[in-house]
Specification:
2 domains; two-stranded antiparallel ribbon; about 0% strand; globular
Length: about 240
């Protein structure tokens, strides 16, 4: 296997290889000459740790200056590294934003007891869905942030960077919902062929709930939102 100037492995067409050997999977180069990150090694651990540090820096930057501030140079400065080093881990700005979106979703959505088949499946799904709602203490700030994200992505002067982040977060949320529903389908509580459809409906319901919480009418509050998600869970369970 040939190596690039930084020590990363690069693909060589089979026709140009004298022999094929089984090698462990590779991840992004750590920037150390003639070293590449193999799972289970110190180089791999260091590479993953640095990648996590970059994502954490990006999350702090987005919280302080807004999502539109997530440029490669700005994130690199926040992480204390150069743009070239950052591109070892995230070759494109789109990949960086996608990683940030995934981190936002994975950091706020947990599987809880979704796999515990000794408990009522409706209650398990409802508890998981409740994670999409803001707490009463954070409701105003959370909803304002949600609306600002959509405004920057879809408003009169949309920002492509924010739209990419929004789309990545939407895909990640859909994958989490599909995982929850898939677990329940494996246990016989949800029709398997309807998992994707239910996930799409859940996202539509959650967005509608957020909008109603933001603009009213006044009677629609967090308790009404919780009841709406309970209503959905009851109709999904076969």
């Amino acid at each position: 296997m040939a190596r690039g100037r930084c020590g990363c492995a690069r693909v060589v067409p089979a026709a140009h290889q004298r022999r094929r050997t089984a090698e462990p999977p590779l991840v992004r180069c750590t920037g150390t000459p003639y070293q590449y990150a193999v799972p289970g090694t110190a180089y791999y651990d260091a590479s993953m740790a640095r990648r996590d540090e970059i994502i954490e820096a990006a999350l702090r930057l987005a919280k302080a200056e807004g999502i539109g501030a997530l440029s490669v140079r700005a994130v690199a400065n926040a992480a204390g590294i150069g743009p070239t080093t950052l591109r070892h881990y995230f070759p494109s700005q789109a990949e960086l934003r996608q990683a940030v979106a995934v981190a936002c979703v994975s950091g706020s959505l947990d599987d809880l007891a979704i796999a515990d088949d000794t408990r009522d499946p409706v209650r398990r799904l409802h508890e998981c869905l409740l994670q999409f709602l803001p707490s009463s203490e954070q409701q105003e700030a959370a909803l304002d942030g949600w609306f600002e994200l959509y405004r920057l992505a879809l408003g009169p002067e949309p920002l492509p960077a924010v739209r990419e982040l929004l789309e990545s977060g939407h895909r990640s949320s859909a994958q989490v919902l599909q995982r929850w529903l898939g677990t329940l389908a494996d246990q016989g509580h949800v029709v398997p062929d309807e998992v994707d459809t239910h996930a799409t409906r859940a996202l539509a319901l959650i967005d509608g709930i957020h909008l109603n919480l933001l603009i009213g009418p006044e009677p629609f509050d967090l308790q009404a939102a919780r009841e709406a998600l309970r209503w959905f869970a009851e109709r999904v369970i076969a």
